[in-house]
Amino acid sequence: MSNNNEWMHRDVDQLFHEGRWNEELLRTVFPKNVVKHILNDIERFHDSEERDNPRWMLNNSGKFSVKSARDITRTPGVENDSFAKMWEKGVPFKVSFFFWRLAMKRVPIGKVLARFETEEEMIKDTVYKWWNATCSAKLRPLFNAIPGLILWQIWKRRNRIRHGDNMNVQGMMMEVNMNLHMLAVFRYPWQRNIPEDWPNLVHFFEGYKPILVPKVIHWKPPIEGTYKCNSNGASKGNPGQSVSGFCIRDWKGEFIFATTYDLGIRTSLEAETSAMEKGLNYCVTHNLLPVFIEMDSLVLTKILNGVWEVPWSIKIQIQKIEFLRNNREVAVLHTLKEGNKVADYFTNFILSFAGTENKTFQSIQDVRKEGKSLLIMDANQIPNIRINKMQNKLYGL
């Protein structure tokens, strides 16, 4: 933290006593929740040439967005699944907007329905039955779009007739088919030879199968004389109840130390960062260096390696990590989830066995059978298999 106002510096300094936050004074100045945040998350600042920057605290990026501002001004409600289907991605806005207006009774069609002895509820039931019809995952966006596209054509025909023009049923069907084909091409641009008529379109996507590509992944021990710390964080809800943990092993794959702890309500990125920081701090404190810090969070890996900007929500933790890394042999690596199963096991230990109590493992004898099996597999280079679903670009050729 830096500030050009010297009085402001001295004012903040008054909140410290013997190098620590003066908790008693903090409680007389700030509300309880602010005091808790300061004591838990903010260490004493140091003079810095870096200028202070404003942060928009309603999103993780720290940058203002109209959406986040709108979210705090509107009353949150339960998401309407039917409305979500009306606004299918790729459907022209005018079609979705018309469909929404129709559902909200903003289109004057009451007299028309009465003339044809058609009840409004009958149309709703027909649409809902169509939306709930069983279909493949690739067909679902098309199924969601069809009622709106058909009603749009009926509305266009009605308007043309009112203005002295006409539109036959065959032409309406052709336009619906054409719009469905365009939607399929928009949603699946990598797919070739998509049929233009509805029956063949259904047959085409129902027969589609992705390409399954297996990949062998295993934990790689560090080079001789070094250590590896695998860290992991998890959040149920993001933000939600969060846990973090790490496991340290030597170049032979032998267990040294592991811990898992509850974080309360945090985001998944905050949990991942906390795990990495505490793991690195343990390695530095116990002189387990050089060390490779390995995690399955690609986002955090890119942040620590300077590729991506640091979000405001983890700024303080990243500063702690950089301080620990300074002039020390510390490398940050990324692995896939299958290569980080031991850290994942310790991270979820609280949720699986220990409730909300933090747990420390000083030796492999403290580890349960399931964890020992994972440690032995890693030490013996027994691989895990990852199955990736790839787009089948050759399907239909």
Q: Radius of gyration over alpha carbons?
A: 29 Å
Order of helices and strands: HEEHHHHHHHHHHEEEEHEHHEHHEHE
Distance N to C terminus: 61 Å
For the sheet with most strands, the description reads: 6 strands, mixed
| Assigned CATH class of the largest domain | Alpha Beta
Structural class: alpha+beta
CATH fold-level name of the largest domain: Nucleotidyltransferase, domain 5
Helical content stands at 40-55%
What are the low-pLDDT stretches, counting only 5+ consecutive residues below 50? 1-10
User: Counting H and I runs of at least 4 residues, what is the number of helices?
Assistant: 17
Number of domains: 3
CATH architecture of the largest domain: 2-Layer Sandwich
Number of strands: 10
Major β-sheet strand ordering? 8-7-4-5-6-9
User: What best-fitting shape do the alpha-carbon axes yield?
Assistant: extended
Q: Going by CATH, what is the homologous superfamily of the largest domain?
A: Ribonuclease H-like superfamily/Ribonuclease H
Arithmetic mean pLDDT: 87
What percentage of amino acids are in beta strands?
15-25%
List keywords for this structure.
10 strands; 397 residues; 3 domains; six-stranded mixed β-sheet; Nucleotidyltransferase, domain 5; alpha+beta; 16% strand
How would you summarize this macromolecular structure in one to three sentences?
The protein has 397 residues and is of the alpha+beta class.
